[in-house]
Specification:
It comes from Microctonus aethiopoides. By secondary structure, this protein is mainly beta. 13% of the residues lie in helices and 37% in strands.
């Protein structure tokens, strides 16, 4: 008996697609941990992170989960860690707030398997 000859054919639909990357694709993604002091709710962390990004790496657009994780395609331009205060406008309270933000690189993710 030869494999694949006894059963009937079926169609399988998957949610996978072929992805083609250019030769300059960065195969290392960076994972950073971020902390806010004092700790803030998610709706405050997003504008605080936006103010941090604009002030310290305006040409980079890392992904922020709104809690404690940031992912970027390559290193962010501050080395292994960054600790600073940022001021941003709190829409709910209609006033500026200042929060201390600390970011630390915790992992390099190998994307070459993609």
């Amino acid at each position: 008996m030869q494999a694949g000859t006894q059963g009937r054919r079926i169609s399988v639909l998957t949610n996978m697609i072929k992805i083609v990357f250019e030769s300059n694709f960065n195969i290392k993604a960076m994972h950073y941990d971020v902390k806010f002091d004092p700790d803030k709710p998610k709706y405050i962390k997003k504008p605080a992170f936006a103010a941090l990004r604009e002030a310290h790496f305006p040409k980079c657009w890392p992904a922020f989960d709104g809690r404690t994780n940031i992912y970027s395609a390559g290193n962010l331009p501050f080395g292994k860690s960054l600790s600073t205060e940022v001021t941003f406008f709190d829409e709910e309270r209609q006033k500026d707030q200042t929060v201390k933000v600390t970011m630390e690189k915790v992992n390099e993710i190998d994307m070459s398997w993609l």
